[in-house]
């Protein structure tokens, strides 16, 4: 069988339309657009490309995009100070710290400088706790995008066996938490799991988020399983051996065009929600 594609580009287009409408309504009411501030540390070309893409999309949707560029030699203290300054700005609704930061910067400390109500990328401890406790708060963008993509194609989650390959704090762990909250049975694996092939072979849904090209072999996929490849490696190669996996899976994400557009869609949507929440909270205090 040949798998159907989980087309993140098509699904994100619908979300972008909703975001643009809400952003326009917000701007009409408040006299300013929702504002996303992006903090970029250093000179990594891929990071610069990602930030430009996010800025371009924000502009297309009617959001203001504010870019803070810090030099490669920036210290943790300097990065924290820059983020705290943005958190104190009443016209900044969401803050994104572009990952990765240079080695000398403590990313966790910089993330924690983001006020929880501005953490539209879902990277703070408060957001992680909200995902784990199914409480109100922003979700990590890629994990939330994955869940929305599965929902868009009516992929059942409750009762399914899920294998998450990857354990990062911004992707592997939170996507497992979100799927667990939807009543899936979740197994976390990684590049050092000794029986990785056997774990993948048992899964109804495989989420690959380990950052190693084609680590997940096509023959490991259980016939009819759903494969979500959140990896992106040089040459437009994901973490899954796409051609072979597509012959066994029922649904599979392309790379690119699968998870990536959903990440951007969630980021933009959560920025508008942050703006709306801040207005409501300000009105409630007056």
Automatic annotation (TrEMBL):
Domain Tetrahydrofolate dehydrogenase/cyclohydrolase NAD(P)-binding, residue spans: 140-277
Role this protein plays: Catalyzes the oxidation of 5,10-methylenetetrahydrofolate to 5,10-methenyltetrahydrofolate and then the hydrolysis of 5,10-methenyltetrahydrofolate to 10-formyltetrahydrofolate.
N-terminal signal peptide: none
Top-rank taxon, per record: Bacteria
Binding sites annotated in the UniProt record for NADP(+): 166-168
CDD domains referenced in this protein's UniProt entry, alphabetically: NAD_bind_m-THF_DH_Cyclohyd (cd01080)
Cited PANTHER family: C-1-TETRAHYDROFOLATE SYNTHASE, CYTOPLASMIC (PTHR48099:SF5), C-1-TETRAHYDROFOLATE SYNTHASE, CYTOPLASMIC-RELATED (PTHR48099)
Name by which UniProt lists this protein: Bifunctional protein FolD
Lineage start: Bacteria, Bacillati, Actinomycetota, Actinomycetes, Micrococcales
Record's keyword terms, sorted: Amino-acid biosynthesis, Histidine biosynthesis, Hydrolase, Methionine biosynthesis, Multifunctional enzyme, NADP, One-carbon metabolism, Oxidoreductase, Purine biosynthesis
Cited Pfam families: THF_DHG_CYH (PF00763), THF_DHG_CYH_C (PF02882)
Annotated metabolic or biological route of this protein: One-carbon metabolism; tetrahydrofolate interconversion
GO CC list: cytosol
Homology family: Belongs to the tetrahydrofolate dehydrogenase/cyclohydrolase family.
GO-annotated molecular function: methenyltetrahydrofolate cyclohydrolase activity; methylenetetrahydrofolate dehydrogenase (NADP+) activity
Quaternary state and interactors: Homodimer.
GO terms, biological process: L-histidine biosynthetic process; methionine biosynthetic process; purine nucleotide biosynthetic process; tetrahydrofolate interconversion
The reaction(s) this protein catalyses: (6R)-5,10-methylene-5,6,7,8-tetrahydrofolate + NADP(+) = (6R)-5,10-methenyltetrahydrofolate + NADPH; (6R)-5,10-methenyltetrahydrofolate + H2O = (6R)-10-formyltetrahydrofolate + H(+)
Family matches, as PROSITE patterns: THF_DHG_CYH_2
Entry EC number(s): 1.5.1.5, 3.5.4.9
Keyword Mitochondrion: no
């Amino acid at each position: 069988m040949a798998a159907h594609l989980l087309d993140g580009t098509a699904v994100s287009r619908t979300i972008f339309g909703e975001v643009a409408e809400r952003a326009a309504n917000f701007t009409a009411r408040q006299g300013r657009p929702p504002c996303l501030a992006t903090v970029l540390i250093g000179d990594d070309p891929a990071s610069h490309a990602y930030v430009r893409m996010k800025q371009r999309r924000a502009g297309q949707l009617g959001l203001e995009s504010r870019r803070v560029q810090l030099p490669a030699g920036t210290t943790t203290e300097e990065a924290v100070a820059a983020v705290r300054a943005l958190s104190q700005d009443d016209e900044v609704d969401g803050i994104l710290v572009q990952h990765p930061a240079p080695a000398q910067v403590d990313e966790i400390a910089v993330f924690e400088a983001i006020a929880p109500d501005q953490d539209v990328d879902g990277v703070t401890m408060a957001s992680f706790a909200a995902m784990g406790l199914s409480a109100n708060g922003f979700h990590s963008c890629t994990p939330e995008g994955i869940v929305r993509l599965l929902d868009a194609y009516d992929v059942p989650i409750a009762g399914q066996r899920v294998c998450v390959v990857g354990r990062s704090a911004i992707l592997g762990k939170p996507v497992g938490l979100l799927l667990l909250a939807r009543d899936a049975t979740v197994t976390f694996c990684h590049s050092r799991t000794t029986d990785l092939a056997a774990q993948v072979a048992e899964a109804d849904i495989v989420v690959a988020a380990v950052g190693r090209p084609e680590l997940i072999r096509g023959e490991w996929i259980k016939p009819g399983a759903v494969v979500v490849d959140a990896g992106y490696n040089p040459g437009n190669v994901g973490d899954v051996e796409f051609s072979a996996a597509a012959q066994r899976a029922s649904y599979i994400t392309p790379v690119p065009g699968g998870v990536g557009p959903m990440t951007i869609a969630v980021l933009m949507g959560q920025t508008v929600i942050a703006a709306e929440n801040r207005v409501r909270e300000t009105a409630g205090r007056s």
